[in-house]
Amino acid sequence: MASQHIEVKTLKLAHSTDDTVKIEHVEKPYGEYSSPVVSIAIYSHGKDKVSEIEIPYENIEEFFKALNESVALCDSIPRTEPHAELNSDIGGGA
Predict the structure, then answer these.
(1) CA dist., res. 42 & res. 75, Å (int)
(2) Is 86 helix (H, G, I), strand (E, B) or coil?
(3) What's the order of all strands across the beta sheet hosting 37-44?
(4) N or C, fewer C-beta in 10 Å, the chain?
(5) In the 8-state DSSP scheme, what is residue 66?
(6) How far apart are CA 56 and CA 29, in angstroms?
(7) Contact assessment for residue 41 and residue 30, using Cβ atoms and an 8 Å cutoff
(8) What is the pLDDT of residues 58-92, one digit of tens each?
(9) Predicted structure pTM score
(10) Helical residues (DSSP H) of 1-94, grouped into ranges
(11) Which domains does the chain have, with CATH numbers?
(12) In this predicted model, what pLDDT tens digit does every residue of 4-55 receive, in sequence order?
């Protein structure tokens, strides 16, 4: 039996116009006796797959922990807000 992909969620990728992230549950990803995985794929223009990772469910908790650590690290790095010098939500041009 071939693998079965069950869509969980598709969301718009931030900072793009039409790129998406699709999360799927995949049954039998590598054949009849393989364990299920979570597939996370990025699609350009909503249709062309440009990257994909498959994570075994046994690694999901560790994966979530690493993602949360990454968010905390990102939040801890001081940054100037975009366009702060203009006191505006959008930039200006010359």
Answers:
(1) 24
(2) helix
(3) 4-12, 20-27, 37-44, 48-56
(4) C
(5) H
(6) 10
(7) no
(8) 999 999 999 999 999 999 999 877 666 666 656 55
(9) 0.78
(10) 60-76
(11) 4-79 (3.30.67)
(12) 999 999 999 888 889 999 999 999 999 999 999 999 999 998 789 999 999 9
